[in-house]
């Protein structure tokens, strides 16, 4: 035992050293063979928690996935992101639809050939946020493969366009309400179900695109209620600990997306093998 007891078992052990035996036995003993007393404890130990989850038909070892991020070249001009390990599943690509249909079609085709299993469409952030720190720092970032200035802002037509060029399931990212035209979101949870998406990512993009939006965990319950179990509901934003994950699951999210501190290997590849352990 440590110098100071840190759990109930250690307090029990300490009591055995300081109490007279008859009093200790009175407090800790059970009837006859004490079978029930022992089984009360052992029954909990026999229960193993299954942390696995199934999203879009794919089983993952835990309901924690890596949120999509951009501008990896800021860390290193040759950096790439590769899923590693047996449980790493390349199952989504986060993108916005571009005004030029040929660009969108090319991106989707590349995603399909690369083994992606779903398309995640951002529905509420056609423009970058006004981040004052970037302004003060005179931030200069790499161009997005010459795609700047050609993002589409017509989400409704984007949906049909995407469905016409891919059979991959489509998820909407950026849904924050069950109603149309309320708060930031241009697409409501009910609208997402109506157009036939496979899932929703409840997201405010980590507060990077527009300030004073609702927190994702505060609107999760209303979004889940609105979809009525017809589509998957995922959540990102603010997930820092395993307890945060359990809170989202308790509100009926299927899984969470979390940004993780990745380590950069000698091969300049961001390695997420231990991401699960960090949460």
From TrEMBL:
Q: Name one Pfam family in it.
A: FMN_dh
Q: Name one GO molecular function term.
A: (S)-2-hydroxy-acid oxidase activity
**Location of the FMN hydroxy acid dehydrogenase domain:** 1-257
Question: What is the enzyme's main class?
Answer: oxidoreductase
GO CC terms in record: peroxisome
Where it mainly occurs, coarsely classed, is other
Top-level taxon: Eukaryota
What cofactor is needed?
FMN
Please state where this protein is localized: Peroxisome
What keywords are annotated for this sequence in UniProt? Answer: Oxidoreductase, Peroxisome
List the EC numbers from the record.
1.1.3.15
Q: Which family does it belong to?
A: Belongs to the FMN-dependent alpha-hydroxy acid dehydrogenase family.
Q: What is this protein called?
A: (S)-2-hydroxy-acid oxidase
User: Which species is this UniProt entry from?
Assistant: Prunus yedoensis var. nudiflora
């Amino acid at each position: 035992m440590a110098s100071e007891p840190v759990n109930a078992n250690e307090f029990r052990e300490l009591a055995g050293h300081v109490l007279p035996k008859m009093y200790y036995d009175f407090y800790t003993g059970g009837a006859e063979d004490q079978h029930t007393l022992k089984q009360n404890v052992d029954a909990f130990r026999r229960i193993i928690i299954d942390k696995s989850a199934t999203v879009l038909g794919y089983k993952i070892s835990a309901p924690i996935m890596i949120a999509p991020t951009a501008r990896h070249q800021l860390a290193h001009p040759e950096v790439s992101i590769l899923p590693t390990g047996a449980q790493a599943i390349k199952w989504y690509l986060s993108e916005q639809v571009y005004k030029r249909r040929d660009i969108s079609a090319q991106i989707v085709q590349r995603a399909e050939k690369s083994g992606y299993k779903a398309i995640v469409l951002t529905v509420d952030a056609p423009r970058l946020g006004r981040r004052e720190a970037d302004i003060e720092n005179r931030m200069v970032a790499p161009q997005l493969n010459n795609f700047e200035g050609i993002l589409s802002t017509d989400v409704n037509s984007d949906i049909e366009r995407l469905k016409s060029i891919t059979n991959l399931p489509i998820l909407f990212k950026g849904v924050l309400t069950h109603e149309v035209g309320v708060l930031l979101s241009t697409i409501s949870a009910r609208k997402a179900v109506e157009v036939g998406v496979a899932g929703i990512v409840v997201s405010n993009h980590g507060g990077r695109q527009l300030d004073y939006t609702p927190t994702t965990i505060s609107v999760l319950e209303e979004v889940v209620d609105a979809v009525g179990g017809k589509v998957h509901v995922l959540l990102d934003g603010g997930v820092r600990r395993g307890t945060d994950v359990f809170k989202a699951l308790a509100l009926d999210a299927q899984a969470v997306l979390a940004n993780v501190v990745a380590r950069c290997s000698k091969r300049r590849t961001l390695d997420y093998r231990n991401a699960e352990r960090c949460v």
